[in-house]
Amino acid sequence: MRAHALVVAEADGLGATRLARLRGEAPLLLRQTAIHAAPATVYVVGGAAGPLGGDDLHLEIQVGQDAALCLRTVAASIALPGRSGAFSRTVVTATVASGGSLRWLPEQLVAAAGCRHLTLATVHLERGASLIWRDELICGRHGEEPGEATITTSVGYAGRPLLRQSLTIGSGAEGWAGPAVLGGAIATGSLLRVDPGAPPAIPGVLGPTAVRAALAGPAWLVTATADDAHTLRGYLGDGSA
Q1: What is the 3-state composition of the chain as percent helix, strand, coil, each rounded to the nearest 5?
Q2: Read out DSSP for 163-192?
Q3: pLDDT (average), residues 47-65
Q4: For the chain, which terminal residue's Cβ has fewer other Cβ atoms within 10 angstroms, N or C?
Q5: CB distance 188 to 224 below 8 Å
Q6: Averaged pLDDT of the chain
Q7: What is the pLDDT at residue 36?
Q8: Which residues are paired to 60 by β-bridges?
Q9: Are 94 and 154 within 8 A, CB to CB?
Q10: pLDDT tens figures, 127-162
Q11: Dist. CA 123–CA 156, nearest whole Å
Q12: Per-residue confidence at 19, pLDDT binned at 50, 70, 90?
C-alpha cells in the first residue's frame, strides 16, 4: 500500500492557527480536533492495520510563520511482516517557519515478530522555530521477539545540523540488545525539544536508564530505555511542558 498525507498549518492573523490543507489517504487518515484550541491539533487515524511489509507511507507537515500545530496518533502502530518479506517504510518530513511551533507526539511503534520496517524522519527548522519531537519504539509484542526495525531522525536548525540519530534492532543489528545499546530493555525512545526562548537546558540523570543532554543549539534531548511502555513514557513526558 502506498499513501501520502499532507498537513499545512498557517497563522490566521487573529492569534490562532488554521489548517490551510489537510489531506490524507488510507491508512494515513487525518482528523482535526478542538478547532478553536491552540495549538491546532490533528490526529493520524490508522485506516488499516500496519504498517505492513511492502507499505510505503509518507506524511508531509508544513508549519507557517507564527502557526502552532500538534500531531498525535490515536493508537500505537504495529509494524507487521508481509508475505513478500519486503520492508515497510514510513517517511515523515516537516518544515517549521520562524515563529512557528510543531509538536510531534505519536503513540509507540511496536516492532512485531517478523517485521522489516524503516521509519525516516527529516525536520527543517528556520531560526526562531520551536519543536517537540517524540519517538518511542517497543521491541515486539508481549512474549515475542521483535522483528527488524530502524528509526532514523534528522533535524536541522537555521540551516545547520542539530540532531542526527539512528537505531536499528532485530536480527540484522548485531549487539542491539547488549549493554552498549538497549541492555535488554524492550522499550526505548527520545524526546527532542527545540525552544529558542528558553534558558539553556541543564544536563541530568532522570532515572536509572534516562538522561537529558543539551545540544549545540537552543535544544535538549532526553533519551531513555525501560522495561515497559508506561515507564518509558514517564521518562520522556507527554510533551505538554
Answers
A1: 5, 55, 40
A2: EEEEEEESTTSTTTTSTTTTTT-SEEEEEE
A3: 89
A4: C
A5: yes
A6: 93
A7: 65
A8: 6, 93
A9: no
A10: 999 999 999 999 999 889 999 999 999 999 999 999
A11: 6
A12: very high
Grid coordinates representing 4?
501520502
Helix (H, G, I), strand (E, B) or coil at 95: strand
Q: How far apart are CA 179 and CA 107, in angstroms?
A: 26
pLDDT, mean of residues 202-219:
93
Radius of gyration of the chain (CA): 18
Say which residues have a Cβ less than 8 Å from residue 39's Cβ, sequence separation at least 6: 17, 68, 69, 70, 101, 103
Q: In one letter, which amino acid is 175?
A: G
Measured between alpha carbons, how far apart are the two ends of the chain, in Å? Answer: 36
CA separation for the pair 92, 28 (Å, rounded):
12
How far apart are alpha carbons 73 and 83 in whole angstroms?
A: 26
Question: Which residues lie closer than 8 Å to 136 by C-beta, 6 or more apart?
Answer: 106, 107, 108, 109, 187, 188, 189, 229, 232, 233, 236
pTM of the predicted model, to two decimals?
A: 0.94
Handedness of CA 19, 59, 74, 67 (dihedral sign): negative
Task: Kindly state the cell numbers that stand for 129.
Answer: 522555530
Sign for the CA dihedral angle at 189, 194, 195, 198 comes to: positive
Q: Has residue 48 got a pLDDT over 70?
A: no
- Does the pLDDT value for residue 49 go beyond 90? no
